[in-house]
Amino acid sequence: ARNAANTFKVSKDQAQRNAKQLYEKERADQKSQFHMIVIGHVDAGKSTLMGHLLYDTGNVSQRVMHKHEQESKKLGKQSFMYAWVLDETGEERARGITMDVGQSRIETESKIVTLLDAPGHKDFIPNMISGATQADVALLVVDATRGEFESGFELGGQTREHAILVRSLGVNQLGVVINKLDTVGWSKERFTEIVSKLKAFLKQAGFKESDVSFTPCSGLTGENLTKRAQEPALIVWYTGPHLLEVIENFKIPDRAIDRPLRMSVSDIYKGTSSGFCISGRIETGVLCVNDKVLVGASREQAQVKALTIDELSQSNVFAGDQVAVTLAGVDVNNITVGCIICDPQTPIPVTTRFQARIIVFNVKVPITMGYPVLLHHQSLIEPATVCKLTALIHKSTGEVVKKKPRCLGNNSCALVEVETSRPICIERYADFKELGRIMMRVAGVTIAAGMVTKIR
Ligand code: GDP
Hints:
With 456 residues, the protein is of the alpha+beta class. The chain has helices at residues 12-16, 19-27, 46-56, 62-74, 90-95, 125-132, 148-153, 158-168, 188-204, 232-235, 243-248; strands at 32-39, 102-107, 111-117, 137-143, 173-179, 212-216, 262-270, 276-284, 286-288, 292-295, 300-309, 312-314, 316-318, 322-328, 340-342, 350-360, 371-377, 380-393, 400-403, 413-425, 437-442, 445-455.
């Protein structure tokens, strides 16, 4: 399947470029950046918490906050004023829920954190997945209110599913926010009870204890968000970091700048001048104006005419950047959302069959040979079948428990082969973490997630 486009000449420049040096020269004085996804059960208080945090860190203007305050008062929904910072569309506001993965930024002294605020509703899991595939770290928000933590944490509640999802998609640093602690009188016992339940579960889900923190907060009152605890009932037992410190202390993942170029396309639109635009994230490598690239599974060749980040023109963009690219020399019909742009010297594998290591959850009918699914890979959604069940494996050791199982039920971990009807661009997780993660969905429910282990 690897039909390298070796007839396609790239410039000498492109072949010999030192990406790391270029990056250091251009971005030396810039703040480090990472993407954070906020997950948790519906109504855990995610939007309120993040809105309040954005406001307290000076990332929302007084004017905008005042507008939200006035509007929420008028509707008698004042407790929503912070949440509205994140939910900008009228429909969401009317329904009082966060639907899409809204993006905002928290800028601190040394860091820029892009927030991917995940929706809590069940039907919106696809949006969350696309957010989670971009996330470097995650905040898990749980509601400390008696009964509420329990319902979010039960089987079927989103606390568990979200945590398993982000872990399966490669996120390993997790900040757990024990939120709404005002509703239980800042009780230490309640905090400790929730922490011990979550600790056991998160360990099982594959998080290392040293990569998980627990922070008591109230998104509504603003307690322990950007200042150390002040609430008398809280300071008697908590002297740890506030939420902003937790966020600043996340270890920043290295940008994979010195790898071959891979960019995943999340949107396509008509450009202002010649050619057309695609937008998405540079997963690895560097891309420069005038570079030649290969597009998607068709491996058509195209030339980069212009690059922008947040509408500002750039000569070079790097791994980790969210960019818009103007392309010329390629038929727009050959580009689809979810396809990958790569460099001609080291093109991405194109295949219809690969092996993956998956964990299964939420299946009503166990997975058997020939099971049809919708495959999610970055922004790509493609019909596929599980065409072979290779082995059941142990969740943590990875040892083969049983070869050729007849079916896979909930909570099983397995090696399977997946076949798509059309060729897709995909990488092994071992080669390109960013492009080796997959999810499978059936009838609107995520049934499995995992990583690509072999490409046929
Ligand atoms: P989301 O669905 O997770 O985004 O939750 P929201 O931010 O929309 O909050 C759900 C409800 O909980 C709203 O009525 C909020 O006013 C309320 N809420 C959020 N945070 C807190 C908190 O810290 N304390 C209390 N008492 N209520 C909160």
